[in-house]
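Q: I have 144 residues here and want to know how they pack in 3D. Can you give me a structure?
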Amino acid sequence: MTSSQLKELLNRYVDEVWTKRGVAAIDGFLAPTYRRHLGRGVDPLTRDGQKKLLADFRAAFPDAELAVEEMIVERDLIAFRSRMRGTHRGTFRGIQATGKKVEVRLLDMIRVENGMFVEQWGGPDLLDLLQQLGASVAAPAASR
């Protein structure tokens, strides 16, 4: 795919899945072999895991809006910086709805094969999001 086609693919994903709130549209973007790498020591999410994550997020932030602020395309990779705004109206990570409006930044990289997302790295700044919701976040005590 060309750089402009990859940019258009990401913009369609944001429009169909985020703006139009079409969780079912994910199957048209994520390959059956899709894996989202969330971090060290955590198994990558599958396509179904990503759909559940997004559905759960939507339940917690039903008015969530995602805006891509910058995108860089190289070969089969799309790197982008975005911003999510929403209102906490449902349980998120064990935190009951607070009614607070939040804004969080995201950094992501997606690898594309045959017009489908096959791998993804990154995501939202969860520490910032949890702090905006009033969660107390502390590092575990050091062992001696």
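Q: Anything worth noting?
A: Residues 92 and 136 are 14 Å apart (CA to CA). The chain has one domain: 3-132.
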